[in-house]
Amino acid sequence: MTVRREAFLQHVKERGEYDTLQEAERAARVVLALLGSHLVGEVRAQLAARLPEGFALILLNPMQSAEPLPPERFVRAAAAWIAGATEQTAAWDVSAVLSTVADAAGDDLLKQILLQLPAGYDLLFGSPQHT
Description:
Helix 2 (21-36) runs parallel beside helix 4 (53-60), helix 3 packs antiparallel against helix 4 (53-60) and helix 5 (71-81) packs across helix 6 (87-116). The protein is globular, with a radius of gyration of 13 Å. 69% of the residues lie in helices and 0% in strands. It is built from seven helices and no strands. By secondary structure, the protein is an all-alpha fold. The protein has helices at 5-16, 21-36, 41-50, 53-60, 71-81, 87-116, 121-124.
């Protein structure tokens, strides 16, 4: 089931402790564009189907990435794209957005998403994998 835009942004706003929905949206746009460059095929399409339309389009038309970034480089890339962000604030932004994405995805799809990503992304999604 697709999450409504307002509900999605409200969750990001609360988790990121942003003052405005605009701040939450800015973080969501950057993080989803980066995430989209790491996912392929049916997994990306299934996740897009669960996101609000505008964010689904961002996920489906991502920034280009030559290779999947390890989690720490993903955070650095987000910091580079979010105006005024540091690596610490970008880590907060990434976590706020990806934990909301994890909720929208559900457990089964999240497992498939994590299989396409380098090790360590489970922490960014707020879903540590016990090995």
